[in-house]
């Protein structure tokens, strides 16, 4: 009876802990978004189109909470009932010494044989607790990169841009690059010819980017702060590279970058600015 009551109390406490952990994560995300947006109040529309995006965010939060609470509850129940059984056996006069020694030997043998599995589960626990990434995030885990389709305590399942599905044990993930957490950045390197008026070209790029920033008809992505042309990025063999950066909502940097490329090309064509093409200087030596 005591073990049953203790397990129920611990289960409720763990569920409450999971809910609080999830709420704190959501509040941190909204605070970061509020800072980026430069506003004091986040409307429901902004929430739904940014970090906590509708149903996908709810499913991610729910799955994370359920996984954490389920694992912690199982561990707590196992410990409580194991202690309860051992105490009961001791009360009825059974010698627990040989039993505990045998269980220890079996545990050591299983531990050596299942080191990689234990490592995978522990890594998965830390990933969930720290919320390094979740379902729907675009990540680079070194071994592969793509969109997270499913997460378990043992494996992470990604789908790359070619449609291949990667099953990666969590214990083999040494580092994670999350390209869609809180905000993202579109980085465009645009080449122009050497005879181009660079200041004029930069101004055109800036005007195009700001035009997209204020364009409410573009719904495939959202630029969340004023884009900026950082200037000359490289003096190449065939042309000069100008860089433009724009901060976007999570996972929308690619759509924004594609639209910017189209609009910049159209603006350059209208202004007579040429894209570079391979150029070579040939020296012809004539023998006298």
- Domains counted in the coordinates: how many? 3
Which geometry do the CA atoms define? elongated
- Biggest β-sheet: count, sense, barrel? 5 strands, antiparallel
Assembly state: single chain
Helical fraction: 40-55%
Q: Distance N terminus to C terminus?
A: 110 Å
**What's the number of helices?**
7
Percent strand: 15-25%
Structural class: alpha+beta
Instruction: Give the low-confidence spans.
Output: 39-56
Question: Care to describe what's here?
Answer:
The structure is a single chain. The protein has 288 residues and is of the alpha+beta class. The protein has 3 domains: 2-113, no CATH class; 132-181, SH3 type barrels (Roll); 184-271, Alpha-Beta Plaits, CATH 3.30.70. The chain contains 7 helices and 8 strands. The chain has helices at 2-37, 44-48, 54-91, 96-113, 115-130, 198-213, 253-271, and strands spanning 138-140, 145-151, 155-159, 165-169, 177-178, 184-192, 228-235, 240-248. The chain is elongated, with a radius of gyration of 28 Å.
């Amino acid at each position: 009876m005591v073990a049953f009551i203790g397990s129920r109390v611990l289960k409720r406490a763990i569920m409450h802990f999971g809910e609080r952990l999830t709420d704190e994560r959501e509040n941190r995300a909204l605070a970061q978004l509020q800072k980026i947006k430069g506003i004091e109040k986040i409307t429901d529309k902004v929430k739904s189109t940014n970090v906590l995006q509708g149903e996908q965010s709810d499913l991610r939060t729910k799955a994370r909470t359920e996984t954490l609470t389920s694992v912690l509850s199982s561990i707590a129940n196992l410990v409580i009932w194991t202690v309860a059984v051992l105490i009961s056996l001791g009360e009825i006069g059974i010698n627990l010494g040989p039993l505990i020694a045998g269980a220890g030997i079996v545990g050591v043998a299983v531990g050596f044989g299942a080191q990689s599995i234990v490592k995978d589960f522990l890594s998965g626990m830390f990933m969930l607790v720290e919320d390094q990434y979740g379902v729907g995030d675009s990540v680079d885990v070194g071994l592969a990169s793509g969109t997270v389709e499913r997460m378990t305590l043992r494996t992470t399942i990604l789908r790359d841009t070619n449609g291949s599905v990667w099953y990666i044990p969590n214990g083999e993930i040494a580092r994670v690059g999350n390209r869609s957490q809180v905000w993202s950045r579109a980085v465009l390197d645009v080449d122009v010819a050497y005879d181009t008026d660079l200041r004029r070209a930069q101004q055109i790029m800036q005007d195009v980017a700001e035009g997209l920033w204020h364009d409410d008809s573009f719904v495939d992505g959202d630029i969340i702060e004023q884009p900026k042309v950082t200037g000359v990025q490289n003096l190449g063999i065939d042309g000069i590279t100008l860089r433009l950066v724009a901060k976007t909502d999570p996972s929308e940097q690619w759509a924004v970058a594609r639209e910017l490329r189209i609009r910049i090309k159209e603006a350059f064509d209208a202004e007579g600015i040429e894209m570079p093409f391979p150029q070579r200087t040939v020296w012809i030596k004539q023998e006298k």
